Records
---
Amino acid sequence: MPTRTVVIIGGGIAGLATAVRLIQLGLKPIVLEKRPFLGGRAYSFTDSDSGEEIDNGQHVFVGACDELQKYIADIGASDQIRLDERIGFPVLKGQKIGWLKARRLPGLLSNLSALLGYRHVSLGGKLRILWALLLIKLARLDSGPIPSHDQISFDDWLRGHSQNNETIRNFWNLIILPSLNDDITAVSAYTGIQLFKIALLGSAQNPAMGIPLAGLSTLIGENARRFIELHGGEIRTGVDVDSLHIAGGGIKGVSTVGDELIEGEAVVSAVPAQAMTKLIISDSDGPNDFFTPAESVKTAPIVAIHIWYDRPVLSEKFVAVLDSPLQWVFNDTDLKPHNNQSSESGQHIVISLSGAWQWQDRSKQELRDIFTVEMEKAFPTAESAVIKKFTIVKMLEATFRVAPGSQRIRLSQRSPLPGFYLAGDWTDTGWPSTMESAVRSGNLAAKYVVADIGTGSLHPVGLATSEGRSDSRGS
Ligand SMILES: Cc1cc2nc3c(=O)[nH]c(=O)nc-3n(C[C@H](O)[C@H](O)[C@H](O)COP(=O)(O)OP(=O)(O)OC[C@H]3O[C@@H](n4cnc5c(N)ncnc54)[C@H](O)[C@@H]3O)c2cc1C
């Protein structure tokens, strides 16, 4: 039986991944989540009209997200995601479809072959892109306190390395905008280079698209709840943590807004950066300099537009759209058939708008007027289709921004306050604001906790590598 308890503040992916890993290492986690449900920024809710489970925003991942996939396997949910074998998606420009589709070739060649048949970039443009990819492959990203590639935007870096409007609009930003939730002119070259190094310049499956097949609350929240509770951990929702409880120079637990003291031998904050700084400043006279950079973490919005048509308007599972405000359009009916039974012969479409400052303050009617017309321009069948229902979901603080200079504000999971650890996608994981980053942060935080306080357990739960389940005998 675990003899040591760790309090985790936040029931998003980072907090849940911390809990799962702590259990695997032989500790007992208590997850405290202020909202009534788990999942944090990755949740779903039941739409009252259709009865369908709608995600707060379309979430995708790529093959390179190995710790996310391992976590999903550990909580027994591998059958609720789907991963393509290699990169392959259609890109619509005007009425022309071009495919970024890799061929069956060994390793890196497979990814590079995706450019060959891509008709939205000229031959000259393709040569430019290959040249920049070579430079990215050779680029050394220094990890000092002020990494040089973190001082300029990725757009500036690319333009300084033979890229032009054609390659930036039709290739580089096509990938950067949805991946980093920001325009290429606003993200640091450091993160842009790293993204392409990991995804396109890695193995054939690294850039392949992965999609949840279930609603996010089921996939992320309920599967984790089952695993954690089954293995002796606790989850308490509706508990708003106010501050750290510090005594004798170390952390002894947390105090809630309702004045309850919840004790643990270590505390992991798995909340967004701004929420974490409030926990610290209110009570601690500890080493605040370490935490101060987190106050500079900025966020970016995502707006999702859901349209239910009375007939299919999109034949693919998803499509990227150039020269249009549509950005990316997902065919939810095909992607989550079990969840869309009420669609019958119709189709549920999700338009995912990244870096959506332009749209975040628009009314539902304004968005409906604009985007139904844009859909008709891009997909002519939509002209004769009847819209049965229209919904928007705005997430104003969807992701943290990776602007130039942002590397220094990503903090280590091990804080200088004894017994206090950080998790959360925004901490220093090397990944942008993603589910993968959240899981990595949780794994790192759990590793540091165990290194510092030990497990005290005779039989840690095995770190499973096989599909689905860990060995639970030791818990
Ligand atoms: C619309 C949208 C689309 C996205 N698309 C993608 C995508 O396609 N691919 C991808 O990989 N990522 C995507 N992301 C990002 C991804 O969802 C996040 O990176 C990830 O969920 C962050 O998890 P986290 O646990 O670090 O933080 P959070 O999810 O923010 O979790 C923090 C939790 O802490 C709780 N909390 C805060 N303060 C307290 C307190 N005082 N006491 C108790 N609890 C507290 C919060 O309620 C929350 O549940 C998207 C995000 C959004 C919003």
Note: Residues 9-15, 32-35, 40-42, 56-57, 59-61, 240-241, 270-272, 275, 302, 395, 398-399, 424-425, 433-436, 438 surround flavin-adenine dinucleotide (CB under 6 Å).
---
Amino acid sequence: MKCISVVKVGSLRDPNPETRGQVDVLDIPEQELGPEDVRIKVAYCAICGSDPHLVENIFGWEPPFGMGHELSGVIVEVGEKATKKGLKVGDRVAGNFLHFCGTCYYCQNGQQQFCTHADESNNPGMAETVVWHESQVYKLPDDVSLKTGCLLEPVSVATRISDKVDLKLGQRVAICGGGPIGLLALQAMHMGGASQLTLIEPIAERRELAKKYGATDVIDPIAEDTVTAGLELTNGMGYDVVIDCSGSPRAAYPLPQLCSRGGKLIYAAMYPNDWEMPLNLYKYCYYNELTITGLYVSPYAFPRAAQIMKHFDLEAFTQKVFDIDDAKAAFECQISGKYPKVLIRCNEFPGE
Ligand SMILES: [Zn+2]
Ligand SMILES: [Zn+2]
């Protein structure tokens, strides 16, 4: 079967074709179906902001390796013991690319995101079919199409961000970075009752989307100083909650200054793994009592994400679709940043 794979590691933006990273469509064998697994015929798989980092080889995997974790599809085969959730052939589903073992220390301690066996069944989703353990698979609500359904995983990340924020009605929230996760987190904070909601983002189209999704203010960090603008918008108080979804060191660094005293600062992106950020502990942790945290993946969030996803406005996220054979063009389009999301159609399902 076809599977979009990393065939050469390196940055996709590298101007030198000798060292540039490369993806291609490879013919790989279908995965074997275990007794507790289901086989999904993949409809759509979205390109994640983290996928180009995968091509850069942040995890140190040996190429070629398959890609894709934001997928939807239809069940075509159910293992004999995959009976706990009532899944059946023909179900429209999406799910979690990670399988948590349920047995290790972390799984037993309410921290399945740190499962010590989670990597063992991480099968690639930019493929014609994928095999997942039934615990990874969630039925899509009837009113969520397969095209929208592939966004269950990013919606689960917004759900996890909400869990970490634990927003109180009326709090002021700033979000830095208007990529897909930033815009979904913004919608979540709007639903959750933020009184003031500011997006910090250099791309004008994304700032416009944010206003449509409930942002009360936007800041262009190229045209104005983020901290000055944010403090002005909050009468000098700062925000109760600041969420970074940019992953950019330059954008992430000044964010402690945007937090109100006693506020919460969540670094909710993936960062360059060798970057260290100076932080004045006296000012921000002792005197201002900030709570600073981050997040890795989205444990315990998928069932709620599936329930709430129809309340998200996901139209702008499903505008650009490439066929699986056009993998290279799809990745070029993704790194151009022109669309909030780029989808790959792995199989045709008429009407979806
Ligand atoms: Zn993702
Ligand atoms: Zn585990």
Note: The CA atoms of residues 256 and 322 lie 40 Å apart.
